[in-house]
Amino acid sequence: MEASQPDTKNPIWIARETLKHLATQRIAPTPDQYQAIYYQIAGIKPPKHDVSDSLANNLLAMLRTLSLPQAANRYVVDINLAVGNENWPTVAQLVGQLIQLQASPNQQLERPWEELLLMLWDARGKASDDHTRRDELAYTVALFAGQPEKLNHELNTLITHWLNKPHEIEVFDNENPPVEIMPVNSTIQENCSQTECSWQQWQVLVVNTLRDGLIPRLTSHQHWIDEIEFIIQAIEAIEQPENIDWIQKRLRQCWIHMALRIDQEQRLIDGLLSVLALFVEHLSLPSDLDPWVTHQLDNIRRNLAKPLTLHRIYDAESILKELVYQQGLLQHTLTEAQQTLKAMISVFLERLGVVTEATGEFQHKIDHYTERVHQTSQAVDFKSLLEELMEDTRHMQLDMLRARDELVKTQQQADAAQQRVNELRQQLRQVSEHNRDDRLTGALSHRALVETFSAEQSHMSQSGKPLCLALLDVDNLSELNAQLGRQAGDDTLTGLVQVIKTVIREGDSVIRYGSEEFLILLPNTPLSTATDLLRRLQRELTKRFFMNNNKRLLITFSAGVTRCLSEESREQALDRADYAVFLARKQGKNQVAVVEAPEIPVN
Question: pTM (2 decimals)?
Fold first, then answer.
């Protein structure tokens, strides 16, 4: 049987023969090799390569062989990226800039960069100067970012001016002594000499710092997160430390924009505080304001006058909630008092009209009797006229007495309503001063935190047994309120407290700390036991579902646990627990993190 002739025009046959040829000749199956053999078997000429592509590849190969200064490395990186994107106008522009850089004579830096950085650290001034100096530094860096020698000269001039400028000596108090800071360069050199740190280790350090230290603080600024992620990817792609100049420039620009934005946010916070202070001042204006309300407004004003902290925000929130609650209780009684007053005024006007009408009618009768007196001459007629006059006078007197009695009765009702208002206000003041429970959840209120913590800390000092503090932050409560309404969120918090009370021991305390945060004080409890209790509480919550309109809701929380010290303040322990919550949230939802107390108590 005669063999069939190969179909040299069939692409499938050509492709199969190409693969066979690559296999028999043991040629690497690269795209270029496959393309060359494919065209050879097909008997056609391969297309000519793009001249610009060949030129760019030859140019890159030539640049890699040159001995370039450090300032030129970023141009090589940018040229490589532009070639990969086939952005030929940019390639031409970058090559021209590189040629100009090579043609210009090398200038000697006025001062080494490491020495300049140390001078910059030494030149930091008082807090009152920081804002001005930061602006001057940001302006200088932004203006001369592309000119290293010029930037070096301008920074040297600026820092020298700062160092020579006379300034007052700062006085530190005993509670906040100055902290000695080791020179950055010496620390780095010492560590490097001991561990022989490599460029790859520094890469990991910088990437972790940006990813774990900076990005979590930029959750409301997605464009900054994208920028930092891009810089992280670029750092991870660099193989030699000489190629980091353009990343330094990108980071400098990012820091400048970030500093300006942070300054704007600080001004926004200051503006909101000013608005709140004006609002509180406006509430304090009425001269007949209840003394207890005036005292609470003074407390809010004092909290706003101090440096703003999370604890003071919670204090102000607690006071405002108390004011709102008392206003709600008083509103019903005040409404009753107003209705009674309106009724008294209505009765008064009604009786006044009756009296006026009766008086007018009586006056008309008096005039009629006067006219009859002038016309009467008989004694019998005078007697009859006098009897009629006496009868009308008695009716007039009865009307006046009835009006008086009704006005007195209404006045007594108004006085009784006012008395009820005064008594209720007094009772509310007494209950508020002694009330320790949060009315919504049944946990201890924020007002009870100071007393409870002080008592447990004192007991810890006397007994020597450990005291642990756990801070719980409910996961996704804001989203729950937005989707199902505020009432669903309130029911969730109430249900959470009920479960907490079934898990904790007698003598432990659960306190509502913020809108969606709770504190648990655990006396006579080691840190490991406190951690186990929190994890047991998490397991208990996973077994329970809370119902809302026939929908099952699962509650989870992120928690931080720490051990309290006898010498530290309440705020220091809370700050440590709050940091533990931050670490728990970094691990994901429904996690527990532990932060150990320092070995030496903070004074």
Answer: 0.42
